[in-house]
Amino acid sequence: MNNIIVAENLTKIYDQTTTAVDHLNLTIEEGEIFGLLGPNGAGKSTIILMLLGLTEPTEGKISVAGFNSTREPLKVKSVTGYLPEKVGFYEDMTAYANLFYTAELNRIPYREIPDRIDKALSLVNLSPNKRQKVKTFSKGMKQRLGIADVLIKEPKLVIFDEPTEGLDPKVANQILNTILDLNRENGITFVLSSHQLNMVQKVCARVGIMSHGKLVGEGPIDELGRDIFGGGKYRIEIELARVPDELIAKIKSLPGIISVGVDGSRLSVVCNEDLREDISRTIAKEAIIMTGMDIKQDALEEIYLRYFKEEE
Ligand SMILES: Nc1ncnc2c1ncn2[C@@H]1O[C@H](COP(=O)(O)OP(=O)(O)OP(=O)(O)O)[C@@H](O)[C@H]1O
Ligand SMILES: [Mg+2]
Questions:
Q1: How many domains does the chain have?
Q2: Pairing state of beta strands 189-194 and 33-37?
Q3: Ligand 1 center–CA 43 separation, angstroms
Q4: Angle at 92 (CA atoms; ends 89, 98), nearest 5 degrees
Q5: Which of 111, 260, 282, 288 fits a 20 to 30 Å CA distance from 206?
Q6: Which of 224, 241, 272 represents a domain boundary (last residue)?
Q7: 264-285, pLDDT tens digit by residue?
Q8: Is the same domain home to 305 and 164?
Q9: Based on the domain organization, do 187 and 260 belong to the same domain?
Q10: Ligand 2 centroid vs 183 CA: distance in angstroms?
């Protein structure tokens, strides 16, 4: 695998006071869909701006496809498509005319433009709307046109700021599926910056969690989850009338249990399978009343909440 994005010690201090990005080290491989997560002000957009060569790092560097973003921004631009949070189109022009304009701006040879537009529109399922004015488009259609707009230049990498913001779940899913298809079929690498965790979780195999300019967690979603759940995929929480030591020992000896924590009348059992039945049976055998049982999965939501618990 080739690294498409490499950030080394990447730092941005605005006005000599605000550290927006703080000695970031991050590598993204070609063909990945990477999710950049974090609350407002965490530094996500600043990373993207440095990646695109639109602002200079105070320290460290970032490169895209081997090109230094600060020194070779035009080369970076030639391989990167960027979708800002709000894509602007000429509302009174057709989808086709808008894309034609983008193609011209990107200096695509004239004879290639019609084919590229058709290909891009077909990839986002907007071929039938080619001659329609953009002002008649729904939000989801505009978002898809935004994707077509960056596909015109056949990028290796697409940076997408808040891809599903403001879209209803059905349209959001269409956008995510489009991203997945483009990744699988055309090998395009995506970096998605988002607050919408459940959305990111659907398409990103790996995420980076930003907080105050630092990467506080990074890795495949399931591994991040496992770290938090003490090495297991699930955490089962049980409320009991009483918690005798023999019971704890019995639960610990069940096959598949990784650990058992006790906090007053509450047990917290970490395991890699859903062992609720086995545990319930063990508790019943001891004739102990169970007042509650809950299973938590390593959902990204949990991971995220855990990281930002203190900040909210
Ligand atoms: N041009 C600027 N001048 C001064 N400070 C800035 C500038 N741009 C961003 N900042 C500050 O840098 C920090 C990081 O901002 P950034 O926009 O990168 O965060 P973000 O993660 O993209 O947030 P959001 O989720 O709200 O888009 C914030 O404290 C912000 O106020
Ligand atoms: Mg931002």
A1: 2
A2: parallel
A3: 6
A4: 45
A5: 260
A6: 224
A7: 999 999 888 899 999 999 999 9
A8: no
A9: no
A10: 23
Token pair of 265 as six digits: 């009348």
pTM higher than 0.90:
no
Q: What's the gap in Å between 226 CA and the centre of ligand 2? A: 28
- The number of C-alpha atoms within 13 Å of 299 and in the hemisphere containing its C-beta is 11
Same domain, 125 and 265: no
Indicate if the pLDDT at residue 312 is higher than 50.
Answer: no
Protein residue with least CA distance to atom 1, ligand 1: 14
Q: Are residues 165 and 274 in the same domain?
A: no
16 pocket-lining for ligand 1 (C-beta < 6 Å): no
Residue 144 near residue 124, CB atoms below 8 Å:
yes
- What are the pLDDT digits (tens) for 15-62? 999 999 999 999 999 999 999 988 888 999 999 999 999 999 999 999
Q: List the shell of residues around ion ligand 2, using CB closer than 5 Å.
A: 44-45
Residue of 12, 15, 22, 45 to test ligand 1 pocket, by largest number of atoms within 8 Å of CB = 45
3-state secondary structure of 232: coil
- Nearest atom (ligand 1) to Cα of 39: 25
Residue nearest ligand 1's atom 22 by CA: 45
User: Is 43 close to ligand 1, i.e. is its CB under 6 Å away?
Assistant: yes
CATH number at residue 278: 3.30.70.100
pLDDT at 224 (0 to 100): 73
Beta bridge pairs of residue 263: 266
Structure token digits, residue 33? 């869909």
